[in-house]
Amino acid sequence: MDNFTIDVNIERLYKYFESKLGKRVLKQLICIILLIFEIDTETIIRKMGCSPITLNKYTNLINNNRLEDIFKDNVYRRKSELEEYKEMILDELETHPPKTLREAAVQIEKLTGLKRSTNQISTFLKKTATQDAK
After folding, report:
1. HSE-up of 54 (CA within 13 Å, CB side)?
2. Which of 13, 41, 82, 114 is most buried, with most CB under 10 Å away?
3. Residues 78-105 pLDDT 10s
4. d(Cα 104, Cα 2) in Å, to the nearest integer?
5. From CA 57, how far away is CA 62, in angstroms rounded?
């Protein structure tokens, strides 16, 4: 199998699993597999766009049998200010159900003083519903 065939197959696998795993996890997984198969790090850097520092970290984790640490979610995500008012917001929306997201945004603004777009309100409510379902 030549390099072109390998490149095409890796690209096809990447596109297939990208939506299922997420770009970051998929990229980590492919880099780890390439390291395990002892592919040259310069090749991995060039093909996958990883930094040498990241590959060195992955190599150390592989050598110390701590692969699961690679997949720990250590990405910083800002917490929504709406989270502080979550219970109050949910009580208000349950007591006075809005007909639209715009109405919900107005209710939340009156209640908390935080003006948010309908997209932000939608994201907050979906996230809250997902958390409550767990």
Report:
1. 16
2. 82
3. 788 999 999 999 999 999 999 999 999 9
4. 58
5. 9
